[in-house]
Amino acid sequence: MQHTCDAPDATAENGRVLKRRLENRHIQLISISGAIGTGLFMGSGKIIALSGTSIILVYAIIGFFVFCIMRAMGEMLLANFEMGSFADLVHHYLGPRAGYILSWSYWLSWVVAAVGDVVVVAGFMQYWYPDLPTWLPAFATMFLLLGLNMLAVKAFGEVEFWFGLIKVVAIVLLVITGLVMVATAYTSPAGVTASFSHLVAPGVVMPHGILGFLAGFQIAIFSFVGTELVGTAAAEAKNPEKTLPKAINTIPVRILLFYVAALACIISVVSWANVPANRSPFVELFLLGGLPAAAGIINFVVLTSAASSANSGVYSGSRMLYGLSHQRQAPLAFGRLSGTGTPVRALMFSGVCMALALTLLFVIPEVMTVFTLVSTISAVMIIVTWSLILMAYFAYRRQNPQAHQRSTFKLPGGKACAALSQVFLLFVLCLLALEPDTRTALYVMPFWYAGLLLAYQRREKTNARQMATH
């Protein structure tokens, strides 16, 4: 089990352990940033085109189940402060094999997502510098984020705090702009008058029927990848018994503001028929608002959003490898910390893998095709991750009923709520088979999991041989 508290860690070099240096503001903004991904800014146009105004219901449903999963995770983390992350929970309650599969999969999902996000950053840089070769800002961003993560966990928290703040301010401004335009019955040059009636106009709720509504879930689930980050940051939080419940309990408020209110304002101002499927609807609203610098402002916001997601990927990936090393499921070198309490070797390995994947992306010219594929792979893995968290919750209730009784942060609805969430995740996994661009990832992923099982068996045999010889 990975020790991340202030107790001395026998396996840590020179008694070094992960430091609890993330403050309340860092934890709150990390969890907020996790809920506002590149998917919201870029993917929402495509979902609105597919699902119509029922998109708001799609986000509300996913948000409800994500909240339930996070509450289950929060209850388990607070029941035992020696658990540094949700990977430790899965390892402890479901056994080392499940912990191994979850940690390596979560590591890969963030490597893949970070690469995709860095490529998106490069694409946004070309908005200002059209002749700039894509590889230059992509590699520059990657090395900058790796450098920042090398410094100390406080640097990660600080970067994420400011990235998160920019996103939050942009969305709040968008909601205010939308509300003012509706209140003043603003009429766009295209002749569309801003009104809430656009949300319920005939033929806009489910324009493509029930299949269009269901297809919205496939893309929308990408937007929530990273919400569980608060569980990774828990090991490095000051006063986790205060910061963790606060971060988890504000998830519904954030979903209402960032998804439901923002999308309701966009549709009210632009109207469903005029929302572009291939561009950011956030840009469209500010352009209609008559702000000449709107496109540039939103371009900067989406760029920081993508950089923030990549930053989260670099951070999470290194922490997963650190945990695996302490469970003897990854090379011991990954468990070594620098003087600032940062797992530098785990960071370097993640960085090398990201750099290799980045060179591969430039071999394939269609960057956005690759981005769709990598984000789907990331989504499949996150569904598996969330499922394992729920399975760990059932095991925790069986194995540790006293802790559940003592808990002051219980999952509302208990086992029934967890079971309903598990059914929902299976339902979304089945929906991924509906569209050809998301189906590919479903075909690829079983090979990864089969490979992991083989790697786990080999590692166990090696460990058994080493134990026998000592």
TrEMBL record:
This is Amino acid permease. One of its GO terms (biological process) is transmembrane transport. The chain crosses the membrane at residues 55-73, 107-129, 135-153, 165-186, 206-230, 251-273, 285-310, 346-364, 370-396, 416-434, 440-457. The keyword Transmembrane helix applies. Residues 26-466 form the Amino acid permease/ SLC12A domain. It comes from the Bacteria. It holds the Pfam family AA_permease. It is found in: Cell membrane. It is a multi-pass membrane protein. Keywords: Amino-acid transport, Cell membrane, Membrane, Transmembrane, Transmembrane helix, Transport. One of its GO terms (cellular component) is plasma membrane.
